[in-house]
Amino acid sequence: MSGTLAVVSQSCSSISFFDLQSSERTAYLTDLIPEPHEILFDSKRNVMYCSHAYHHGHFWSHGDNGHQISVIDPNKKEVVDIIETRPALGPHGLVLDAKQDILWCSYEEHESSSSGGVIGIDPNTRKVIKQVESSTKTHWFVVTPDGKKAFTCNKTAPFISVLDLENQRMIGKIESPGGTEECSISLDGKYAYFPTPGTQFGKIPESPQVLVIDTAMDKIVARIALQSGALSTYVAGDGKILVGEYRYVNGLAAKGQLSVYDSKTNKLVGATDIGKMPLTLRASPDGKLGFTANIFEGSVSVVDMSTMEVTKTLVVDTERSKVSNICQGAHGMVYFPRD
């Protein structure tokens, strides 16, 4: 097992870099703008982007919305620039459209309205050049490989927004009465995967499932039934669908589960216990390694996808946030294969 994993800690406003062979933290970037959430690697420019959603807190309870994205040199381990997203507020999800060379970022509100949406940023000038409203707060989203459409996770809203990115307008809604969580898209872009219902702390959801959306027809074409509620999905480099399921026992968060599904049949092919509240999922490009950021434990479970065994647990940050009084110690992740 080789490579480096960069992991965000919301509680400590930091990014840790782990050597996956030794499990050692080899670098620690601190004093970031408060509430770093997601990170994304831009290989063309050799930089990472890190969104800062709130001044403190979390989706359910937070201070003022953030309005910045840090640009980070992963070699020097330092912030080299700041992208201003205002008037878009509460930046969160990040998607790089390499074909159109646009960095897309979701946002929760706008200075002129309560509607969220996505903004398009020129990675060269680092200026906002596009904006598409979703009619509600938007947290995560996916973009089709041709860069023409986006489907947004609106957390508590009873619908998924369908956005025309070329003409910068919302073109439809897909009903999801219980809300949705972190979405993903198939490698060929034909299907998008949205866990539902949305998460409510301390509660066990009814009929948890993953909605499978045909991105050409903008409609639900299948439903994957889950054992527990899910916070996240991710499509690995081999096409398998990863689902991060959470569990509650007597109102308290318990060990979660990483479930893996075949994308052709939507059938379960493997599962393993992981840490509490797997908020973010990632995988190595070849699909051999899976990573789950267990935010309530401040740890990352490293999973051998061939055996479905947790081979390592990386401790990121176990401290409780001084504001929320919960551990928000592991969220966004980027995997760097060893050269």
Count of helical stretches: 0
Shape: globular
Low-confidence stretches: none
Distance N to C terminus:
13 Å
Average pLDDT reading = 93
Structural class: mainly beta
Q: What's the CATH architecture name of the largest domain?
A: 7 Propeller
Give the helix proportion (percent range): under 10%
Numbering strands along the chain, what is their spatial order in the largest sheet? 3-2-1-32
Q: Describe the biggest sheet?
A: 4 strands, antiparallel
Could you tell me the radius of gyration in angstroms? 18 Å
Supply the CATH superfamily name of the largest domain: YVTN repeat-like/Quinoprotein amine dehydrogenase
DSSP summary, beta strand count: 32
CATH topology of the largest domain: Methylamine Dehydrogenase, Chain H
Q: Provide the β-strand percentage band.
A: over 45%
Tally of distinct domains: 2
Structure description:
The chain is built from no helices and 32 strands. The strands form nine sheets. It has a four-stranded antiparallel beta sheet, with no helix packed on it. A four-stranded antiparallel beta sheet has the order 4-5-8-9, with no helix packed on it. It has a four-stranded antiparallel beta sheet with strand order 11-12-14-15, with no helix packed on it. It has strands at 4-9, 14-19, 25-29, 36-42, 47-54, 57-58, 61-62, 65-73, 78-84, 88-89, 94-97, 102-107, 109-110, 117-122, 127-133, 140-143, 149-153, 159-164, 169-175, 184-185, 191-196, 209-214, 219-225, 230-235, 241-249, 252-261, 268-276, 278-283, 289-294, 299-304, 309-315, 333-336. It folds into two domains: 33-175, YVTN repeat-like/Quinoprotein amine dehydrogenase (Methylamine Dehydrogenase, Chain H, 7 Propeller), CATH 2.130.10.10; 178-317, Methylamine Dehydrogenase, Chain H (7 Propeller), CATH 2.130.10.10. Strand 29 (289-294) and strand 30 (299-304) form a beta hairpin. With 339 residues, it is mainly beta. The mean pLDDT is 93.
